[in-house]
C-alpha cells in the first residue's frame, strides 16, 4: 500500500500554480509590491529608530536633559554657563568619523571617534560623553587648565584603549594625532560635506577608558574577525573647528552629579520671559515623542500597505476567477472522482496560500537586500552616521507575513467558492 | 444495487427525464441508447451522483442518497463509481500516474493498492507511459488511462459515456474487451452509446426517448 498524504496533494497543487506563469507572476507581483514596500519601510524605520533610541534611552535613565539651540548665537550658551556653572557642561558635536583602520593576517578593526568639546576640567571625575556618563580619571599627562581654554590650544585628551592601539606601551603625551574631518556646510538648507582634511591635535592627557568599553574591546579582540571601536576625543570648548560647527544642530547635554532637580529648576526659572533662544528637552519627553512618532509612522506604513493590498486583492480576485474558468474541465474531473465542494475550495485556498508564501519570501529577501544596500550608501555619504545600523525585527516579518497571507486568503475565497459550486456535468462537458 | 423510483429531472421549465424507475443490480451490463439531446448524459450524471434528481427517489444499496450532504455524496461517488468519458477528460498538465491517482487523492483512505495498480497498468498496457504527460498520448492510450483512473478505487459501478466514440476499431475493441473482463469480475457497467453493436454484450439495453426510459 502506498499512502498519498498531504505532501502528495500539496505537490499536486504546487504544479497548478505554475500552469499559467503570466497569471502566477501577476498575482505574485500584486502581493510582493505591498509586502516589499512595507517591510523595507519598517526595516528602515526600525534601523533609524533603534540606532538613535538606545542612546536616548540611556540619557533618559540618567535623568538628563538637553538644550537645543534655536540659532547660532553664542549668547544663550554664555548665559547657560553663567546659570549652571561651566564645569557641568559638555558639548557634543555631531562630528563623528573614521579615525583609523588596522588589519592583520586574520583580523581587522576600525576606530571611530566622537569629537567632544568640553568645559570640564575633569576635576569631578565624571565625563559626559555622546552616549554615556562615566566616572573617570586622568592616568597620564594632565587635564585641561584655564590657559588651554583661553588660548584655544589644539589639545586632545584620549582614552587608554586608543592610546594602547596607537602607541602600544609608548608614552602618548606630546604626540600628535590627526583626525579626519569632512567640511560641513549648508546649501539651500541641505547638509553637505566638503573636502576631507586632517586636523592635528596634540595629546596632553590619557583618561582611564570606562569599564564597559574595556570589556567590549577585549571581547571583540578575542572573538571577532572584524570589529569597530568607538572612542571619544576630548577637546576644549573654546577650540572650535570651523568645519564641524553646525550651530543649529549642536546639542548640549547637562549633567548634575548632585541634584539634577535643583539644577533644572534653577535653570528653568532663570530663563528670561519672552526669550526663546533655546529649547529645553527632557529625555523622558524626547523618548516619548520619538516612540509616538515611531508608532505613528508604523501605522502609516501599515495603512499604505493595506490600501495597496486592497487594490491588489481586487486584481487577484479577477485573475483567480479567470483561472477557475480556465480550469473548469479539471475541476469537473476532480469533483466527479470524489472532490467535495469543501475539498475543492480548500485546494484553491492552498494554491493561494502557496503563492502568498512565495510572495512573502521574495518580499523578505528583496527588503533585506534593499535596506542593507540603502544603509551602506547612506553611511558612505554621511560618514558621521557610521553608527546607524540595520535592525531587522521579527515582529515586522510576522506582520507582513500575516498581511500578505490574509490578503491572499480573502482574495482567494471568492474564486475558490466559485470553483466549489461548479456543476460537475457542465464542467465535464466543458472539456 | 441502484434503484431509481419515479425520478424526474428538469432544468427550469424543461423536463429532461420524466418519472423514471429502474433497478440496476450488481454485475449488470447495461447499455443506454438514445438520440442526441434525449437526456442520456443527464441520466448517467444522476446515476453517478454527479447531479441530483428534481423529484423521486435514488436508493444506493438501499439508502436514499437524494438528500445527503455534498461531503457524503462525494464520498459515495469516489468509492462506488468510476467514470469514463468520450473526450477522456484527463488533466493535460499531469502525468499518467497523477491522472490515475486522482480518485485516490480525494478518497478517504488515500491508500493505493500498489499490486492492484501494477496489474491494472499491465492489463491496460500503459505501465510504460506512467510518467508521461497525458497530452503526449494517442487517443487509445488516453482512453486506457481514463479506464485505469475509473477503476483504481475498485468501484462497484463504471459509468461510461460513449467511451468508444473517439476511437478507431482496434482501440474500440480493446476498450470493450476491458469492460467485458471487468464485468466478469463483478463490476457493474453502464454504457451510454450510439452504436447498436455494443448492446450485444449487455444484460439489458435501454433507450431514452422523450424523457422516458424504455
Supply the key terms.
heterodimer, A: 431 residues, alpha+beta, six-stranded mixed β-sheet, four-stranded mixed β-sheet, 12 helices, elongated, B: 214 residues, alpha/beta, Rossmann fold, four-stranded antiparallel β-sheet, 7 helices, 11 strands, 28% strand
The average pLDDT of chain B is 88
Biggest β-sheet: strands ordered side by side in the sheet of chain A: 11-4-3-12-2-13
Strand content of chain B: 25-35%
Radius of gyration of CA atoms of chain B, rounded to a whole number: 17 Å
Q: How far apart lie the N and C ends of chain B? A: 20 Å
Shape of chain A: elongated
Q: State the CATH superfamily name of chain B.
A: P-loop containing nucleotide triphosphate hydrolases
What is the helix tally of chain B? Answer: 7
| CATH-defined topology of chain B | Rossmann fold
Mean pLDDT of chain A: 75
Q: What percent of the residues of chain B sit in helical stretches (DSSP H or I)?
A: 25-40%
Number of helices of chain A: 12
The CATH architecture of chain B can be named as 3-Layer(aba) Sandwich
Report the uncertain regions of chain B: none
Count of all domains of chain A: 2
Query: Using DSSP, what is the number of strands of chain A?
Result: 13
Description:
The complex is a heterodimer of chains A (431) and B (214). Chain A is α+β, with helices and mostly antiparallel strands and 431 residues long. Chain A has two domains: 6-50 and 291-430, no CATH class; 71-276, no CATH class. Chain A has helices spanning 6-17, 21-61, 75-84, 146-151, 160-167, 211-223, 260-269, 283-326, 328-336, 341-381, 394-420, 424-430, and strands spanning 2-3, 65-69, 89-103, 108-118, 126-128, 133-135, 138-141, 155-159, 176-187, 190-207, 226-236, 251-254, 278-282. In chain A, a hairpin with a 4-residue loop joins strand 3 and strand 4. Chain A is elongated, with a radius of gyration of 31 Å. With 214 residues, chain B is an alpha/beta fold. Chain B has one domain: 3-Layer(aba) Sandwich (Rossmann fold), CATH 3.40.50. Chain B has seven helices and eleven strands. Chain B has helices spanning 40-47, 70-80, 96-100, 102-105, 114-124, 139-151, 169-184, and strands at 2-11, 14-24, 29-34, 55-60, 63-64, 81-85, 111-112, 157-161, 188-192, 204-209, 212-213. The mean pLDDT of chain B is 88. Classes of the chains: A alpha+beta (431), B alpha/beta (214). The interface between A and B is medium-sized, with 31 and 37 residues. Strand 1 of chain A pairs antiparallel with strand 7 (111-112) of chain B, so a sheet runs across the interface.
Amino acid at each position: 500500500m502506498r499512502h498519498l498524504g498531504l505532501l502528495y496533494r500539496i505537490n499536486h497543487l504546487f504544479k497548478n500554480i505554475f500552469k499559467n506563469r503570466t497569471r502566477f507572476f501577476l498575482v505574485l507581483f500584486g502581493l510582493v509590491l505591498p509586502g516589499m514596500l512595507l517591510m523595507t519601510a519598517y526595516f528602515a524605520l526600525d534601523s533609524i529608530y533603534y540606532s538613535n533610541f538606545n542612546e536616548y534611552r540611556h540619557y533618559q535613565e540618567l535623568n538628563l536633559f538637553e538644550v537645543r539651540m534655536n540659532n547660532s548665537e553664542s549668547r544663550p550658551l554664555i548665559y547657560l554657563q553663567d546659570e549652571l556653572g561651566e564645569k557641568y557642561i559638555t558639548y557634543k558635536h555631531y562630528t563623528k568619523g573614521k579615525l583609523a583602520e588596522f588589519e592583520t593576517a586574520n583580523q581587522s578593526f576600525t576606530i571611530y571617534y566622537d569629537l567632544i568639546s568640553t568645559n570640564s576640567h575633569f576635576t569631578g571625575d565624571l565625563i559626559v560623553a555622546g552616549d554615556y556618563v562615566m566616572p573617570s580619571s586622568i592616568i597620564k599627562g594632565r587635564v585641561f587648565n584655564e590657559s588651554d581654554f583661553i588660548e584655544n590650544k589644539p589639545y586632545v585628551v584620549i582614552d587608554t584603549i586608543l592610546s594602547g592601539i596607537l602607541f602600544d606601551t609608548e608614552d602618548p603625551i606630546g604626540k600628535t594625532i590627526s583626525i579626519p574631518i569632512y567640511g560641513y556646510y549648508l546649501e539651500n538648507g541641505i547638509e553637505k560635506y566638503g573636502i576631507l582634511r586632517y586636523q592635528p591635535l596634540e595629546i596632553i592627557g590619557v583618561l582611564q577608558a570606562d569599564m564597559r568599553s574595556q570589556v567590549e574591546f577585549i571581547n571583540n579582540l578575542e572573538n571577532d574577525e572584524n570589529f569597530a571601536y568607538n572612542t571619544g576625543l576630548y577637546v576644549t570648548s573654546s577650540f572650535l573647528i570651523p568645519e564641524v560647527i553646525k550651530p543649529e544642530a549642536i546639542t548640549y547635554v547637562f549633567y548634575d552629579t548632585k541634584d539634577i532637580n535643583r539644577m533644572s529648576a534653577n535653570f528653568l526659572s532663570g530663563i528670561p520671559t519672552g526669550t526663546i533662544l533655546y529649547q529645553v528637552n527632557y529625555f523622558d519627553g524626547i523618548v516619548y515623542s520619538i516612540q509616538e512618532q515611531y508608532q505613528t509612522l508604523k501605522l502609516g506604513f501599515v495603512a499604505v500597505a493595506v490600501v495597496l493590498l486592497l487594490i491588489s486583492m481586487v486584481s487577484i480576485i479577477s485573475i483567480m476567477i479567470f483561472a477557475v474558468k480556465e480550469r473548469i474541465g479539471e475541476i469537473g474531473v476532480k469533483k466527479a472522482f470524489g472532490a467535495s465542494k469543501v475539498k475543492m475550495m480548500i485546494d484553491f485556498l492552498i494554491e493561494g496560500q502557496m503563492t502568498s508564501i512565495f510572495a512573502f519570501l521574495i518580499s523578505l529577501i528583496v527588503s533585506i537586500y534593499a535596506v542593507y544596500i540603502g544603509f551602506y550608501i547612506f553611511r558612505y555619504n554621511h560618514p558621521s552616521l557610521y553608527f546607524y545600523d540595520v535592525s531587522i525585527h521579527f515582529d515586522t516579518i510576522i506582520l507582513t507575513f500575516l498581511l500578505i497571507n490574509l490578503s491572499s486568503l480573502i482574495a482567494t475565497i471568492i474564486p475558490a467558492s466559485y470553483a466549489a459550486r461548479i456543476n460537475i456535468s457542465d464542467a465535464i462537458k466543458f472539456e | 444495487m441502484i434503484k431509481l423510483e419515479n425520478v424526474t429531472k428538469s432544468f427550469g421549465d424543461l423536463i429532461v427525464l420524466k418519472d423514471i424507475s429502474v433497478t440496476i443490480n450488481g454485475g449488470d451490463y447495461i447499455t443506454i441508447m438514445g438520440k442526441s439531446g434525449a437526456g442520456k448524459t443527464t441520466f448517467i450524471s444522476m446515476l453517478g451522483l454527479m447531479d441530483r434528481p428534481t423529484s423521486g427517489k435514488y436508493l444506493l444499496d438501499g439508502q436514499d442518497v437524494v438528500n445527503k450532504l455534498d461531503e457524503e455524496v462525494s464520498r459515495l461517488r469516489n468509492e462506488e463509481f468510476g467514470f469514463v468519458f468520450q473526450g477522456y477528460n484527463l488533466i493535460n498538465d499531469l502525468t499518467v500516474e497523477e491522472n490515475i491517482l486522482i480518485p485516490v487523492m480525494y478518497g478517504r483512505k488515500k491508500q493505493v493498492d500498489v499490486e492492484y495498480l501494477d496489474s491494472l497498468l499491465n492489463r491496460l498496457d500503459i505501465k510504460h507511459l506512467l510518467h508521461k504527460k497525458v497530452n503526449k498520448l494517442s487517443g487509445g492510450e488516453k482512453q486506457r488511462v481514463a479506464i485505469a483512473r475509473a477503476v483504481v478505487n475498485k468501484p462497484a459501478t463504471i459509468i461510461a459515456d460513449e467511451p468508444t466514440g473517439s476511437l478507431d476499431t482496434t482501440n474500440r475493441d480493446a476498450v470493450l474487451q476491458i469492460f467485458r473482463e471487468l464485468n466478469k469480475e463483478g463490476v457493474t457497467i453502464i454504457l451510454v452509446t450510439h452504436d447498436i453493436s455494443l448492446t450485444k454484450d449487455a444484460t439489458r439495453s435501454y433507450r431514452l426517448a422523450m424523457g422516458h426510459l424504455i
